[in-house]
């Protein structure tokens, strides 16, 4: 529908519509007044198991300290699954159950909880907001259908908000925005809306506006129903279970009435611009009567629809199509606005059957699930979280792991509730389950009912022109769901046990922790024989160190923290090599000719000429690829992994009887020569830094960043503070929190995320080479 046509009718339609809306509310919403829940909390055994259309799989994501865990805690309390309101500062929340989380007051690993709300079943995952644990967000979003982005309404979009939002966009997840902390003196609705629009490049659809500000924040105006939702909290102990919902009337504050009318007008205009069906409805059915429209679907529970219900349906379509994001307001800590947020989750976010998973359809009614998280329990062993896409998962049954090509017996099936779980006999499609007994399964594995069902799905895909995933030469392996992308570590250090007798225990602990956390990498230095621990940041490695001490009883020693640099090349180069060895009475001869060239940093490729690709034998091709990839693991300059290189294999000559290992060795040696000829270059991780500081300390912070090779991009004003945006090499950021606290007397906060890997200038690279050479 043309926007110009809407604007032509704006004066006629909006004027009459909103004069009436000011004096009476829409009839599609009943008065909402939540009574106190009984003293007994609900049991997980009684959680609803509704039709798949009533299931919501959602994640809570945000920048650190925006209020994710507090919001989750209120949801569990108002839905009746906890007896008391937990507090992050007191360390007694449901989802932050690790000792490290309760001590530090932050979320470290994602936690899943299941509860019901108004005939809907909600499977919720509370995710971390710290940049070091971004993998937890990634693997949660991989299996979820919707997300709630929580914002500090005084800060708007922050550094980690951008990161998690990009992750949600990558998985095409519909989102709802919740502007939290509206009780803060510096809370700013317009600023937050504008930051969502500019920084996230999203279309925020405002559904609520706050009543009062700061300490006087008492509730919100629901712009859909034209109602006031008021929380009359009489004391700090008031839990916010009940609130009053009443229509806006002419007796209201004139400023509030005018602001609400303008906001609702803007809402309807915006939704009409985003949704053609709603725009058509306004221009036709509502031209004479704006309050009722004949029902279009017999399944609707009423025969006359109001403008409110049509608007709500349009908002849902806009949300599911990811054309806009509904925005709600509240203060979770002050127990205001969480119940309407739960209503919005059930109203606007998709059910599992509304999300399209192309590969899953080939399994039809057979079981198909994805393992997205593993935990280790001392009594139960490995606990594997599964998202069930099709079929039914039953306890005491055997399942097939396509990725491992193995069959395992699942002994028990559990409903997840943070660290407290309830055993159940079965679970249907669309849900998130916790399993016991899958000892080989890791993050990203596809689980099906049997080998036969996997082969049947592959045959269906092939017969319908689809593409099944194969392993080696096998065509019956089945269709594998895409796994979880694991970022490369940016820090590493040595880790040593207190005595050699504890080495085996340390290796077992590291193996368990790696299975839980794929972003944690462990390797052994080939020269020194030392164990190297690689992680996503200082906090990440510190948490791992602490967990080894607490959970496994090993007092380990960590070496100095070092930055994980990368290497690349500056130009194209070509070379050839021959490997000729006789072992026993058998001659191994391989010759290869290849070239390398620089490409985008994010990729590391290997390709064959068209002529060679047709002629080369599969086993030789695999050996060549293994040789190329092994050379990417250790660069020619300092031994760091190689990135941003494309290799082209021109010719491969192999004597009959030559082993694949010898072919790989020949290719690897040839690659090393080519990388050296192409001119090696060190790449260093550069962080995007955001510092919020008072103006009186700004010069001190700028001076410190200049010494850290930082580049200031922008300085913004935010209320009485300055927000400094800069890029700084990660190597210069070690211990920054302590220094910042010192130079600002504790009156500053900062956050950072990996921005890119950039080439070091010759002077810094030379200094790095000298420093590392001195350590060797």
From TrEMBL:
<dbReference type="InterPro" id="IPR041095">
    <property type="entry name" value="EFG_II"/>
</dbReference>
<protein>
    <recommendedName>
        <fullName>Ribosome-releasing factor 2, mitochondrial</fullName>
    </recommendedName>
</protein>
<dbReference type="Pfam" id="PF00009">
    <property type="entry name" value="GTP_EFTU"/>
</dbReference>
<dbReference type="Pfam" id="PF03144">
    <property type="entry name" value="GTP_EFTU_D2"/>
</dbReference>
<dbReference type="Pfam" id="PF03764">
    <property type="entry name" value="EFG_IV"/>
</dbReference>
<dbReference type="InterPro" id="IPR005517">
    <property type="entry name" value="Transl_elong_EFG/EF2_IV"/>
</dbReference>
<keyword id="KW-0342">GTP-binding</keyword>
<dbReference type="InterPro" id="IPR014721">
    <property type="entry name" value="Ribsml_uS5_D2-typ_fold_subgr"/>
</dbReference>
<dbReference type="InterPro" id="IPR030851">
    <property type="entry name" value="EFG2"/>
</dbReference>
<dbReference type="InterPro" id="IPR020568">
    <property type="entry name" value="Ribosomal_Su5_D2-typ_SF"/>
</dbReference>
<feature type="binding site">
    <location>
        <begin position="62"/>
        <end position="69"/>
    </location>
    <ligand>
        <name>GTP</name>
    </ligand>
</feature>
<dbReference type="Pfam" id="PF00679">
    <property type="entry name" value="EFG_C"/>
</dbReference>
<comment type="function">
    <text>Mitochondrial GTPase that mediates the disassembly of ribosomes from messenger RNA at the termination of mitochondrial protein biosynthesis. Acts in collaboration with MRRF. GTP hydrolysis follows the ribosome disassembly and probably occurs on the ribosome large subunit. Not involved in the GTP-dependent ribosomal translocation step during translation elongation.</text>
</comment>
<dbReference type="GO" id="GO:0032790">
    <property type="term" value="P:ribosome disassembly"/>
</dbReference>
<dbReference type="GO" id="GO:0032543">
    <property type="term" value="P:mitochondrial translation"/>
</dbReference>
<dbReference type="InterPro" id="IPR035647">
    <property type="entry name" value="EFG_III/V"/>
</dbReference>
<dbReference type="InterPro" id="IPR000795">
    <property type="entry name" value="T_Tr_GTP-bd_dom"/>
</dbReference>
<comment type="similarity">
    <text>Belongs to the TRAFAC class translation factor GTPase superfamily. Classic translation factor GTPase family. EF-G/EF-2 subfamily.</text>
</comment>
<dbReference type="InterPro" id="IPR009000">
    <property type="entry name" value="Transl_B-barrel_sf"/>
</dbReference>
<feature type="domain" description="Tr-type G">
    <location>
        <begin position="53"/>
        <end position="353"/>
    </location>
</feature>
<keyword id="KW-0378">Hydrolase</keyword>
<dbReference type="InterPro" id="IPR027417">
    <property type="entry name" value="P-loop_NTPase"/>
</dbReference>
<keyword id="KW-0648">Protein biosynthesis</keyword>
<keyword id="KW-0547">Nucleotide-binding</keyword>
<dbReference type="InterPro" id="IPR000640">
    <property type="entry name" value="EFG_V-like"/>
</dbReference>
<dbReference type="InterPro" id="IPR031157">
    <property type="entry name" value="G_TR_CS"/>
</dbReference>
<dbReference type="Pfam" id="PF14492">
    <property type="entry name" value="EFG_III"/>
</dbReference>
<keyword id="KW-0496">Mitochondrion</keyword>
<dbReference type="InterPro" id="IPR005225">
    <property type="entry name" value="Small_GTP-bd"/>
</dbReference>
<dbReference type="GO" id="GO:0003924">
    <property type="term" value="F:GTPase activity"/>
</dbReference>
<dbReference type="InterPro" id="IPR035649">
    <property type="entry name" value="EFG_V"/>
</dbReference>
<dbReference type="InterPro" id="IPR009022">
    <property type="entry name" value="EFG_III"/>
</dbReference>
<feature type="binding site">
    <location>
        <begin position="126"/>
        <end position="130"/>
    </location>
    <ligand>
        <name>GTP</name>
    </ligand>
</feature>
<dbReference type="GO" id="GO:0005759">
    <property type="term" value="C:mitochondrial matrix"/>
</dbReference>
<feature type="binding site">
    <location>
        <begin position="180"/>
        <end position="183"/>
    </location>
    <ligand>
        <name>GTP</name>
    </ligand>
</feature>
<dbReference type="GO" id="GO:0005525">
    <property type="term" value="F:GTP binding"/>
</dbReference>
<dbReference type="InterPro" id="IPR004161">
    <property type="entry name" value="EFTu-like_2"/>
</dbReference>
């Amino acid at each position: 529908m043309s926007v110009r046509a809407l604007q032509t009718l704006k004066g006629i339609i909006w004027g009459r519509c909103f004069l009436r809306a000011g004096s009476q509310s829409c009839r599609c919403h009943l008065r909402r007044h939540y009574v106190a829940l009984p003293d007994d909390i609900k049991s997980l055994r009684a959680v609803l198991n509704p039709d798949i259309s009533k299931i919501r799989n959602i994640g809570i994501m945000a920048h650190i300290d925006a209020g994710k865990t507090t919001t989750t805690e209120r949801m569990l309390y108002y839905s009746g699954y906890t007896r008391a309101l937990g507090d992050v500062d007191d360390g007694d929340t449901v989802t932050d159950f690790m000792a490290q989380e309760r001590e530090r007051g932050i979320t470290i690993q994602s936690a899943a909880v299941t509860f019901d709300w108004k005939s809907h079943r909600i499977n919720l995952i509370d995710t971390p907001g710290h940049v070091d644990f971004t993998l937890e967000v990634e693997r949660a979003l991989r299996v979820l259908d919707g997300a709630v982005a929580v914002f500090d309404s005084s800060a708007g979009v922050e550094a980690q908000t951008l990161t998690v939002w990009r992750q949600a966009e990558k998985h095409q997840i519909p989102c709802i925005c919740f502007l939290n902390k509206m009780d803060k003196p510096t809370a700013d609705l317009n600023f937050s809306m504008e930051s969502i629009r500019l920084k996230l490049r999203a279309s925020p659809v405002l559904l609520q506006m706050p009543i009062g500000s700061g300490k006087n924040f008492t509730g919100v105006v629901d712009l859909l129903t034209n109602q006031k939702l008021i929380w009359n909290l009489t004391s700090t102990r008031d839990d916010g279970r009940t609130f009053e919902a009443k229509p806006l009337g002419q007796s209201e504050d004139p400023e509030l009435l005018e602001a609400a009318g303008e906001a609702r007008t803007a809402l309807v205009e915006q939704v009409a611009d985003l949704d053609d069906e709603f725009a058509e409805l306004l221009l036709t059915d509502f031209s004479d009567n704006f309050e009722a429209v004949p029902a279009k679907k017999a399944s609707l529970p009423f025969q006359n629809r109001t403008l409110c219900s049509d608007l709500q349906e349009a908002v849902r379509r806009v949300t599911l199509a990811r054309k806009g994001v509904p925005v709600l307001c509240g203060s979770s800590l002050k127990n205001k606005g969480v119940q309407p947020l739960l209503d919005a989750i059930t109203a606007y976010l998709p059910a599992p059957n509304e999300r399209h998973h192309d590969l899953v359809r080939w399994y039809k009614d057979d079981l198909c699930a994805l393992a997205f998280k593993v935990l280790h329990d001392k009594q139960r062993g490995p606990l594997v979280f599964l998202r069930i896409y099709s079929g039914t998962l039953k306890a005491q049954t055997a399942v097939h792991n396509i990725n491992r090509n193995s069959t395992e017996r699942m002994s028990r099936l559990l409903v997840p509730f943070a660290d407290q779980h309830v055993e159940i006999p079965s679970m249907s499609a669309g849900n998130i389950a916790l399993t016991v007994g899958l000892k080989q399964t890791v993050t990203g594995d596809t689980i099906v009912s049997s080998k036969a069902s996997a082969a049947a799905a592959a045959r269906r895909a092939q017969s319908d022109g689809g593409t099944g995933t194969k392993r080696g030469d096998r065509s019956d392996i089945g269709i594998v769901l895409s796994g979880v992308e694991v970022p490369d570590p940016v820090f590493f250090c040595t880790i040593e046990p207190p005595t050699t007798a504890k080495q085996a225990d340390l290796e077992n602990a590291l193996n368990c922790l790696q299975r839980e956390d794929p972003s944690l990498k462990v390797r052994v230095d080939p020269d020194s024989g030392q164990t190297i621990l690689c992680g996503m940041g200082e906090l990440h490695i510190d948490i791992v160190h602490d967990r080894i001490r607490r959970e496994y009883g090993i007092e380990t020693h960590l070496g100095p923290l070092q930055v994980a640099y990368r290497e690349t090349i500056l130009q194209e180069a070509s070379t050839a090599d021959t490997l000729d060895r006789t072992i026993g009475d058998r001659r191994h001869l391989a010759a290869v000719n290849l070239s390398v060239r620089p490409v985008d940093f994010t990729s590391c490729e290997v390709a064959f000429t068209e002529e060679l690709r047709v002629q080369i034998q599969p086993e030789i091709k695999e050996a060549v690829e293994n040789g190329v990839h092994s050379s990417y693991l250790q660069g020619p300059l300092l031994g760091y992994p190689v990135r941003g290189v494309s290799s082209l294999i021109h010719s491969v000559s192999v004597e009959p009887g030559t082993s694949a290992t010898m072919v790989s060795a020949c290719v690897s040696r040839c690659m090393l020569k080519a990388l050296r000829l192409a001119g090696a270059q060190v790449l260093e991780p550069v962080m995007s830094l955001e510092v919020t500081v008072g103006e009186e300390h700004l010069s001190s912070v700028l001076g410190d960043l200049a010494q850290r090779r930082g580049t200031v991009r922008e300085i913004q004003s935010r209320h009485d503070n300055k927000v400094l945006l800069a890029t700084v090499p990660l190597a210069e950021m070690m211990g920054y929190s302590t220094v910042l606290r010192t130079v600002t007397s504790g009156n500053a906060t900062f956050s950072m995320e990996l921005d890119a890997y950039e080439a070091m200038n010759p002077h810094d690279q030379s200094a790095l080479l000298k420093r590392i050479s001195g350590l060797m």
